[in-house]
User: Fold these one by one.
Assistant:
Number 1:
Amino acid sequence: MWHEVDQRIRRAFSNVRQGFRAVLTHVDSNGGVQAVQADALAGERLQDAELFQHYGYTSNPPPGSMAMVLPLGGRSSHSVVIATEHGSYRLQSLQPGEVALYSDEGSKIVLKRGKIIAVECDAFQLNCKTWQVNASEQASFTTPTLNASAQFVAQGQISGNGGLAIQGGGGASVNGDIKLSGSMNASGDVKASGKSLASHTHDAPNGPTSPPK
């Protein structure tokens, strides 16, 4: 009796397509849900199978990516892709608990042990209305040039070891005292309290003196 029941169950499941592996050949990323074409390892060819991914995250797997396919209702004609992987590009040797985002070009973001986030890319672009960085100990930039397209404001002291060069604009404006250790060279005139260093005169018994030479 149980043998006959087992045979009937086997015959019933033989007509139901189980989950299977496939290799992606094309991804259409234009719609609300991505549609893929894939070649199954059993020789089947999938057309416009839906690729489901978690909310808040999306990727366009390159051709050659492996896929896990689930036929809904046991029918290959209504299959969905529930996972993809590409062994040639996946970051390897991650430590337990580490998480990474990566692309086939080598860009990557790795959440590493020790609460370290490592980012590697050729160009890092950030577009926002307000960017706020709170670094309780230090913020460092190792770069030959640091540019600002408009005003730069510092609430504390600005220190430098390589000098200060200002070109164009309205020059330099300082409100407060200036303490100088060393010499100062000026190619133009210098004024103090409205008095010209280059053309000022002094009152003398025989009349005003000549300007400095």
Number 2:
Amino acid sequence: MTLDLEDYFRTVFEEHLTKVSALDRGLLTGATRMILKQKEIREVDKQLQTHTEEFELKKESLRRRRDELMKKEEKLKESLFKFDKFLKENDAKRVRGEKKAQREREAVRQKEEEIERLKEECAVLEACRLRLQRKVKKNALYWAFLEQVLNLTKYEEVWELLGRFATLLSNREQLQQRESEMLEQADSQRGALQRYTDQQSCSILQKNNLLSHLQTELDQKRSDTLRWENTWNRIQTTAAKETLLLGQVKVVTLNLYHMMGGTTGQEEGVAIDDTVAQLEKIQLFIQDQSAIVNNLKQSRFQTVTKANLK
């Protein structure tokens, strides 16, 4: 900052000197101008010194004021921090207080509900007590009766008699339960027997149906067997007839073969049981004889024709 002021005053002084030099350059001598310049320099230095001192005073004043402002700012920040902390603590205390008040109100409400519940329980217990008192008063007659019965038994206390009675009741209940279980078991076995009987009846019915079906098939097979036996008998009868006919054919064929001069049992002959070969030989013989007859007929016809022509 000091350097800036010095530059400023130096610039002003140089401008002033320049103006003076421009005005008096032609009028003053060199020594006079030097004296004037020195005087002006001293005046300018004096003014510069004065302004510098004033500036330093102002600068010091501004520095002190800035320090005071910084201290005030620090104090203000500290005050704001303390105030913010105070507000936060107050908010936390307020929240804790509200929560505590809420818990206390909830506890009071629960206590009131518990008081109401206990009052209701007391009322119920009181009603139960009155009912039991009436029941005791009503059963006092039975108690007196039990004491009279006790005098007639071997028991010394009513509780022993009641215990014996409870034992008998328990035994009766057990016997009844056992009887009920036996009845249920009998019903279950009866149902199982009925189911088994139904199953066996159904099975017997199925077996009877199967037996009837098999009997029908057996009758059908017997009928088919009888029919096939009759057919076989007819086949055998027909086969016997055909065998007889075949034998007759073979005998006739063999006779015809012998009649035409055929031989059997030799190397050039035909086997005696080879009917087919014999028939072939007979066929050839008949064809030869037919050819001979035809030739004779043709020769005779030609002879007759020639005779008629003469």
